[in-house]
Each structure stands twice: as structure tokens, then as C-alpha cells.
Amino acid sequence: METGGSSESPAEPKKGRSRAPKKAAESLLKQKSPAEFFAENKNIAGFDNPGKSLYTTVRELVENSLDSAESISELPVVEITIEEIGKSKFNSMIGLIDRERVDAALYDDYETAKERERRLAKEARAQEIQAKNAASGKKVKEQSAGKGMKGRGEGSFYRVTCKDNGKGMPHDDIPNMFGRGVLLILVLKYLASGPGVLSGTKYGLKQTRGKFGLGAKMALIWSKMSTGLPIEISSSMKGQTYMTFCRLDIDIHRNVPHVHVHEKRKNDNKWHGAEIQVVIEGNWTTYRSKILHYMRQMAVITPYAQFLFRFISETSDKNVTIKFARRTEVMPPVPLETKHHPSSVDILLIKRLIAETSKQNLLQFLQHEFVNIGKSHAERLIGEMGSEFSAKMPVKSLTDQQIVRIHQLFRQAKFDDPTGDCLSPAGEYNLRLGIIKELHPDMVATYSGSAQVFEGHPFIVEAGVSVGGKDVKQGLNIFRFANRIPLLFEQGADVVTRTALKRINWGTYKINQTQDKIGVFVSIVSTKIPFKGTGKEYIGDDIKEIATAVKSAIQQCCNQLKSKIIKKLQAREQQERKRNIGRYIPDASAAIYDVLQAMTQLHASKKRRYNEEDTDLVSKVASRSITTATLKEKLSEHVARVDYEMALEYATQSGVSEEPREDVYIQALEPAAADGKKFLDFHSPAFVFRLVC
């Protein structure tokens, strides 16, 4: 008995201990907020490092401002300011007191005496080489900071301010718009990819500017992570007598706003729009060129907007101020919302549309929730689904198997392609003005294609090709736009880059790919841009419809340029021909004049008899009424006349393939003819005969 009891007693606690950890492990499961998800995966939203975070913040704020102004058909005026904040000033902003270092070797930028001596010697050698190169006229590269000084240092924090004249935001909605704007379902949509996936409309599709739909929310999250400082929002809607001021940050774990100040203030200037101010960690030095390049490309694709960009440095010699002036007041139309095309939906989307639809039966659901499905077409589709489907059956009663059957039929059936009416391209006129305004090219050609379709989504490709220009490098300079925003990263794998480099034979169009300054501009707009990569920085080359459309658009521009280039080459050849012939005019005129002078001397000495014309010519030479300059002028006129006749003959021979000229009529000065005609045909043989006679 005792032995049995002693053997059973340890078994029971062991059994209990083995169960406890399992329950504890199950209880460790927790749900992350969407803000926490993006905070942990900030690279997918373009916040890979401090430099790119500064660039992405500027980009998101500028694009929000443009969308806000365009939504009320207001010509955008956007002011963006980046103010450098030194470490001491930043510490005072967050309430820290600067203190001396106690253990210098503890810091990342610490260097020993030998390391410092080695660094200074290396910098001295570099400066000596730089001075020699400068003296010899060689191009000098700026030397980067030494490896020993690798700490973060001063000026790694920046106050970014963006002000616009847009729609503004309602007073009560501002905290939730910035602090609670990301929902969990939107994270799932992001994983499914798409343009502006986090800002899609509820019942359909819409062309949206941007890649993630996060806007200033991600800048707020990055500000919370890097500096801990709140953002400040000033906003006023059109017609409001007050202005809203709000200072807030975000509780990342709970995905809720933490409001510090939310109040109404006077709006004496009757300003409308929004001004957002955020303090973040960044790196202006490494991403300066990218930010300025972005602003320049944005000025190209939106010439109807006015941008004022300022960078304010703690040292005034590094300040930057650039104004991108408005060139036109013609704005593209606001993109319209459209319903889903049947061939572009998946099973989850069909289920969501069923849950959100207000239609009662299947026939109404198919007819009103999708494009290009009329009543008769919907009835034919229902008849094809099977006997368990009927037009009057409640759409909410569809089972999972029946929804899968609908999806299969959508994938297999034939539907008309969606139109491009819902899209809002920049427009050929705006694209041309933007290129001329920013690049000042010698010649430019633009083309806007018709709407095409891939995977049930309409898209339009616009293109421009320029030759020459200001601040343009030799070779191909490729500018890519998606839904009217510039794409600056991962250019090599993009469909536009690959098409321009590998599929266009530039020599066919009289363009030298390596020596000419060529600008290639391609803008793609669609309800779904097929971005690639987590950062959504380029458009893949694997979609045949888009690749074909891009190639065709660039070729159309090149064909326009070819005729201009040929005319320019012909004019250059004509000038060269005149120059070659005119090169001999001084020698020929001098030789002729010497002969004439010899004739005058011979006439004076021997009193020879000449005919009347010779005597007249000799007397003019003797009286200096004919000089070498006279002969040069006459010979130049003769060369110009001969050159014109040669050019006219060439044009006559090569002009057979030209388009017929339009009829031109001018009013007759004489009384009406017998036939009653009051106008003469400018090209008619009768008019030409009368003109010659």
C-alpha cells in the first residue's frame, strides 16, 4: 500500500505540470494593430532608412496636397519646406539637456590618436590631389567624410512642412483621419497588391495617385518611431470662418490617436487648405538629388500646379529655394469611380460585393454591380450557371460553392472591354508643356494612346520624346510616371526602361542613342497599376499588353521627330552647301577685280578701243563704282539663287509623296466673272497664268 501510494503521488503533479505550459502558450497569441504592422514593416511603405524616409515623407505630403486641390478643381499651389534641426536644438525640443561625454570611447564616432592622425593624413593627401586636378583643369569630385567620423552627428533631424490650397479637412474628423486611418482589412488588401490599395472606394475602382494610400499616416508613424514628437495640422475648408489646429500623435499598439491640442482658431485671411508639419529623422545629404529630381518630375507631369520648394539649413550657405511656376491652367478631369469588370474579380471580392450590395436578387446584382453586363447578358449568364441558379433567387442566399461557380464563369465567359472614361491621364497638351517648361528641349513630340485593357482593368499610355535640352545628360534620360506620380527607384527592371533600351531602334529615326540628349517620358494611368516589389517602385515587364502599348507610344513620338530631324538635316545640308560655295567668293571676286583693274590700266595706256559695254564696265571700275565688295555681293546673290533653284528642284522630285495641299481661296479684286464666281482658286492654273502674265 505504501509503495503504491508513493508511486502514484509523483505522477499526479507531473501530469498537471505538463498541461500548464500548453495553456500558457495558447494564451500568448495576440493581435497586432495595422499601425504596428506597418511600424514593424516600414520598408514596404518606403521608409527603409532615414534618407529614403525623408524622401517618402515629402512625396506623400505633396501627393496628398495635389489630390486635395484637384478634388475641388482648384489649381494647386503647394509649398514644401524642409528645415534642418541640429542635435542641440532637437534636444531642447524634446526637453533633453546637452551634457559632456564622460566616456568618449563609448561613442560610435570615437577614434584613437593613431586613427585620427591616419585620417588627417589621408584627407591632406586627398586635398593635395584635388588641388592638382583643379590646377590642371580636370574634373574634381567632392571628397566624402572620413570613415572615422561615422556617427549620426548634427542635422539628422528635419521639420517637414507642406501647405496647400486644397479642400481641407472637417474639424471633427482630423484626429481619426491621421491617427486611426488604417484598418486591418486594408492590410489584407495591401498583401493582394494594387495601386493605392489602402484608399480604394467602397463599391468600385478609382484611379488614385499614390501606391499605398497611407499618405501622411506613415509619416506620423515614422515621426513617432524616430523622434517621438507629435505632428501639427492646420486646416480650413472653403467658406469656413475658422481654422482648425490639431497637435497629435498615435498609439501604435492600439491604432488610436493621442490628441494634445484640438481647437478652432481665427481665419482672417479666409484661407482654405491644409498645412501639415512633422519632425522626423532623415538624411538630406544622401537623398538631396532624389528629392529635387522628384519635384522636377512632378512639375513636368503637373504643369498646372505651382510648387515652391525650400530647404533651410542651419548654415545659410546650404539653403535651397526653387520655384516651379505654373505653365497652364488646363487641368485633367477628376478620375471617376467605376464598377468592377467581371474578368478582374476574385472569390473574396465577389463575397464582399454580395455582403455590401443593396440589390435583392441575382439578376439585379449582376446587372448593377459590374460593368458591361446588361440585362440580357445577365440572364444568359444565369442560364449558363445551372439549374440551381435563377434570376429571382436572393443574392444573399448564395452558398460558397455557388459563388465559386460564378467566379469560374466570369473567368471563362466573354465580356466587352471596359472603357477608359473613368481614367484621368495628364493629357498630351499638359505633358508637352511640362517637358518644354522644365527641360527646354530643341524639339519634342508627344502621343496619347487610346484606352486598352489588361486583366479587366483599363489603362492609357502617354509618351513624350525630346531631343536636346537644358541640364539633360547625353544618351537616354528616362522619366517614368504611374497614375501621374514619378517613379525614381528600381529603374532597370521597369517596362519603360527595358522598352527604350532594347526594343526601340533609335537609329531608324535619325536619333543617336549615345550622343544625343534624349528624354523619354512615359505615363501610365489605370485603375490598377501592376507594381512589382514590396516597395512598388517599378512596373513589371511581364504584361504583354502594357509592354506593347509602351513601345507603340514611344514609336509614335519617334516618327513625329523623324520628319522634324530630316527637315533639320536638309536645312543643315543646304547651309553647308552654301557655305562651301561661298567659301570661294572672296577669292573669285578678288581675281575678277584684278582682271578688271588690269583692263582699266591697259585701256588708259594703249587707248584701245572697246565696245560700249566694255568701256562702260571699265569706266565703272576706274571710277570705283564697282569694287571687290560689289563683286562679292553679286556672287553671293548668284549662289543664293542657284542654291534656291537646287532646293526647289529637290523638293519637286521628293514632294510626290507629300499630302495634297488644301484649297486656298482669295477674294478677286476684279468684278465677278461671267460664271458668277467671286473667289479665285489660289492653286488653279488660271490664277497662276494670270499671275505670270
Automatic annotation (TrEMBL):
Its EC number is 5.6.2.2. This is DNA topoisomerase 6 subunit B. Component of the DNA topoisomerase VI involved in chromatin organization and progression of endoreduplication cycles. Relaxes both positive and negative superturns and exhibits a strong decatenase activity. The B subunit binds ATP. It comes from the Eukaryota. It catalyses: ATP-dependent breakage, passage and rejoining of double-stranded DNA. InterPro entries: HATPase_C_sf, Ribosomal_Su5_D2-typ_SF, Ribosomal_uS13-like_H2TH, Ribsml_uS5_D2-typ_fold_subgr, TopoVI_B, TopoVI_B_transducer. It is found in: Nucleus. Belongs to the TOP6B family. Its main location: nucleus. GO terms for molecular function: ATP binding; DNA binding; DNA topoisomerase type II (double strand cut, ATP-hydrolyzing) activity; identical protein binding. Residues 1-31, 131-152 are annotated as: Disordered. ATP binds at residues 64, 164, 210-217, 536.
